[in-house]
Design brief:
Number of strands: 10
Strand content: 15-25%
InterPro entries: WRKY_dom (IPR003657), WRKY_dom_sf (IPR036576), WRKY_plant (IPR044810)
Radius of gyration: 20 Å
Keywords: DNA-binding, Nucleus, Transcription, Transcription regulation
Number of helices: 5
Largest sheet: 8 strands, antiparallel
Protein name: WRKY domain-containing protein
Number of domains: 2
Strand order of the largest sheet: 2-3-4-5-1-7-9-8
Helix content: 25-40%
Distance between the termini: 34 Å
GO molecular function: DNA-binding transcription factor activity; sequence-specific DNA binding
Order of helices and strands: HHEEEHEEEEHEEEH
Shape: extended
Pfam family, one: WRKY
Oligomer: single chain
Structural class: alpha+beta
DNA sequence: TTAATTTGACCGTT
DNA sequence: AACGGTCAAATTAA
């Protein structure tokens, strides 16, 4: 289109960023060799380690941002004003669920999208209920609904699909609120074996056609309930992608969770939450402070 | 045995 | 008629 120059410059920028990240990774390896960084309380140059992570994070976020602006339009989650009229419009309204497939096509209430470089447990329990190949897309779309749909009538669903232009990224579109409640301590679970790189970033993008989402509307920001076994999630995620991902080998370990930055772009009317995970273990606890920081963000 | 996933069928929308 | 979202029987995993 009109940004050929931009595209050309972008390539150079990406090259430089990739090189910078690679160099930072090398430096990190040197740091790791020189001391035990297995646990976070490692005595060796914690500040240097911290700085290094910041640097890596910057590279990764920049790369992801460039990727993001190039390939994805986060704009077409269209919202219809009709509030969730799920049960209202079956043709045979009196016979609820008598006939298979008697449902109303989703008239979106509230949606938001997330793109992530790795597979993140978003704090809720999901059950897969479908998978479809979508026209002109390489990767299938997976459909999930809340595990507690039956017991608690939770209507939250999500759709997950690999991004064609960058298969290391997943696009997740969330529909509806979680009305279920299971109280457990907040926790983010990441499997590094699914992550294409040691350091990952993710972007949250809220469609702004509706009022600013409440905390609980966003699975990442909400007080989450996590399954007790992270391995189940991981195994399911692995299954989900078994035909499409070549898993990188495990590497060195560090288990910090970073919420690096949060950009609030008023002109775009999008709230973009940028965070970086550096985890090589299955379970990572987010410090409360970080959570509070996110929750107290001035969204409007 | 129970719970979760897979997958083709079903059906509403376009 | 094609497409995509959901259902549910069959299959697999825990």
């Amino acid at each position: 289109m009109e940004n050929e120059n931009l595209g050309h410059g972008r390539g150079k920028v990406i090259d430089e960023l990739l090189r910078g990240r690679e160099l930072a990774n090398q430096l990190r390896n040197i740091l790791n060799e020189s001391g035990d960084v297995d646990d976070n309380n490692g005595s060796t140059t914690p500040f240097a380690e911290h700085l290094l992570k910041e640097v890596l994070m910057t590279f990764t976020n920049s790369l992801l941002f460039l990727n993001n602006t190039q390939t994805s339009e986060v704009s077409d989650v269209q919202l219809t004003k009709s509030e969730d009229s799920l049960e209202s419009n079956c043709k045979s309204t009196s016979i609820v669920k008598e006939r298979r497939g008697c449902y109303k096509r989703r008239k979106v209430s509230q949606t938001w999208e997330k793109e992530s470089e790795y597979l993140v447990e978003d704090g809720h329990q999901w059950r897969k209920y479908g998978q479809k190949t979508i026209l002109n897309t390489k990767f299938p779309r997976n459909y999930y609904r809340c595990t507690h749909k039956i017991e608690q009538g939770c209507k939250a669903t999500k759709q997950v699909q690999k991004i064609q232009e960058d298969p290391s990224l997943f696009k997740t579109v969330y529909y509806g609120h979680h009305t279920c409640r299971i109280l457990q301590s907040p926790e983010i679970i990441v499997d590094s074996s699914l992550s294409p790189s040691h350091h990952s970033s993710m972007f949250l993008s809220f469609d702004n056609s509706f009022p600013t989402p409440a905390k609980q509307d966003c699975p990442f920001l909400s007080s989450p309930s996590y399954p007790s076994t992270s391995s189940s999630i991981i195994s399911s995620l692995k299954k989900e992608c078994k035909e499409e991902i070549v898993y990188p080998p495990h590497s060195s370990s560090a288990n910090d969770y970073y919420l690096s930055g949060l950009t609030f772009d008023d002109s775009e009317k999008d709230v973009t939450l940028s965070s970086t995970l550096d985890s090589h273990q299955l379970g990572v606890n987010i410090p409360d402070i970080l959570y509070d920081d996110v929750l107290n963000w001035p969204l409007s």
